[in-house]
Design goal:
The complex is a heterodimer of chains A (about 120) and B (about 110). With about 120 residues, chain A is an all-beta fold. Chain B is mostly beta strands. In chain B, strands 1, 3, 4, 7, 8 and 9 form a six-stranded mixed β-sheet that branches. In chain B, strands 2-6-5 form a three-stranded antiparallel β-sheet, with no helix packed on it. The termini of chain B are far apart. The chains are: A mainly beta (about 120), B mainly beta (about 110). Chains A and B meet through strand 5, strand 9 and strand 10 of A and strand 7 and strand 8 of B.
Chain lengths: ~120, ~110
C-alpha cells in the first residue's frame, strides 16, 4: 500500500533552517510528483511547491521563493523540504503529498504524509 | 485571504443533505478541475473528490462534486456524525507560473 512517512517534530530558533523528510513506499517513487503543503494551527492549507522526483524539477509558490528548497534521494525513495530564515509565522504542520494527474487540468493529491510539526521559537 | 472562497462553516442533522460551495476565478476553477479534501480532527487531509466529480476508491457515494463556470460545490447526502470535519476545495491556478490554490476550508458540524 502507498505510504508517505515523514520525519519527526522539530523545534527551531528564528533565523535557522529546517529540513523535513518524506519517505515513500508502495509505489515507484520517480513516477509521481511530491508536493508540500503546510497548515498553521487552526488555519487552512497552504501549498508550498512541487518536485518531480524523476527529473528533480521543482516549482515553488511565489511566497516561498528564495526560502524553500525541495530535493530528493531516489536511492532511498525520500523527498526533502528545506525552509530557511525561519520566523515565528512558519510554525505549522508540514505535509508531503503525492501529486497525480495530467498537467494542470487534472492535478490532485491522492496520498498524504502524517505531517511534521515545526515550531519556531526563541 | 484564500484564493478560493468557501463558507467558514456549515451544519446539518443526521440524514440531511448539505452542500459546500467553492468560488474561484477564470485562472483556477474556470480553467482546471476541482478537488475536495476532508480533514478529520487531528489527522492529515484525505482526498475526497478529484477532477470535479470523481470519487477515489473507498469514498462513499454519499459524497459528490460538481462544477459550473468558476464555482464548484461538494454535496454530502445522508449526513452522518463521522462526516464532521473540515472540507477544503483546491485547484491548479494558471497564473504566476502555475500553482495550487486552496479554499479557506469549511467546518462541517453534524448537529
Amino acid at each position: 500500500q502507498v505510504q508517505l512517512v515523514q520525519s519527526g517534530a522539530e523545534v527551531k530558533k528564528p533565523g535557522a533552517s529546517v529540513k523535513v523528510s518524506c519517505k515513500a513506499s508502495g509505489y515507484t517513487f520517480t513516477s509521481y510528483d511530491i508536493n508540500w503543503v503546510r497548515q498553521a494551527t487552526g488555519q487552512g492549507l497552504e501549498w508550498m511547491g512541487w518536485m518531480n522526483p524523476n527529473s528533480g524539477n521543482t516549482g515553488y509558490a511565489q511566497k516561498f521563493q528564495g526560502r524553500v528548497t525541495m530535493t530528493r534521494n531516489t536511492s532511498i525513495s525520500t523527498a526533502y523540504m528545506e525552509l530557511s530564515s525561519l520566523r515565528s509565522e512558519d510554525t505549522a504542520v508540514y505535509y508531503c503529498a503525492r501529486g497525480r494527474g495530467y498537467g494542470p487540468l487534472v492535478y490532485y493529491f491522492d496520498y498524504w504524509g502524517q505531517g511534521t510539526l515545526v515550531t519556531v521559537s526563541s | 485571504q484564500s484564493v478560493l472562497t468557501q463558507p467558514p462553516s456549515a451544519s446539518g442533522t443526521p440524514g440531511q443533505r448539505v452542500t459546500i460551495s467553492c468560488s474561484g476565478s477564470s485562472s483556477n476553477i474556470g480553467s482546471n478541475t476541482v478537488n475536495w479534501y476532508q480533514q478529520l480532527p487531528g489527522t492529515a487531509p484525505k482526498l475526497l473528490i478529484y477532477s470535479n466529480n470523481q470519487r477515489p476508491s473507498g469514498v462513499p457515494d454519499r459524497f459528490s462534486g460538481s462544477k459550473s463556470g468558476t464555482s464548484a460545490s461538494l454535496a454530502i447526502s445522508g449526513l452522518q456524525s463521522e462526516d464532521e470535519a473540515d472540507y477544503y476545495c483546491a485547484a491548479w491556478d494558471d497564473s504566476l507560473n502555475g500553482h495550487v490554490v486552496f479554499g479557506g476550508g469549511t467546518k462541517l458540524t453534524v448537529l
